[in-house]
Specification:
Distance between the termini: 47 Å
Number of strands: 2
Strand content: under 5%
Structural class: mainly alpha
Number of helices: 5
Largest sheet: 2 strands, antiparallel
Shape: flat
Length: 116
């Protein structure tokens, strides 16, 4: 029983199983409390399940599908210059990727040796 109450000191912190169990219990209690405060008027199979589109009917045929390009449009547009150079480096040939990996690894090793 005394072993379970031991605190493992790693030098940079500590780990205590009792503290983790208590933390998990508190997190579970908070989750149950939030679940208990949830909406009780929900009825499965009713129009409540349909998405709300500001009162407009839902278009069919996957017209609401948001493509990944739309999600990252601003980011890709802002970083356009970087991506144009980066995409031009991608040849699709595995040999090129291995060569890049080995070159970057060699640079890191040189940097570690020089700045050690």
């Amino acid at each position: 029983m005394a072993d379970i109450l031991l605190v493992l000191d790693t030098g940079t912190g500590f780990w205590n199983p009792v503290a983790w169990i208590l933390g998990a219990a508190v997190a579970g209690a908070i989750a149950l409390l939030l679940y208990a405060l949830g909406e009780r008027g929900y009825k499965e199979g009713t129009p409540q399940e349909e998405p709300f589109l500001s009162g407009n009917p839902e278009p069919g045929g996957g017209l609401l599908h948001v493509r990944a390009g739309n999600l990252y449009w601003g980011f890709l547009d802002a970083m356009g210059g970087y991506y144009e150079r980066l995409v031009s480096l991608h040849t699709g040939d595995l040999h090129d990727y291995v060569l890049w990996y080995m070159g970057i690894s060699a640079l890191f090793l040189v940097a570690v040796v020089v700045f050690r």
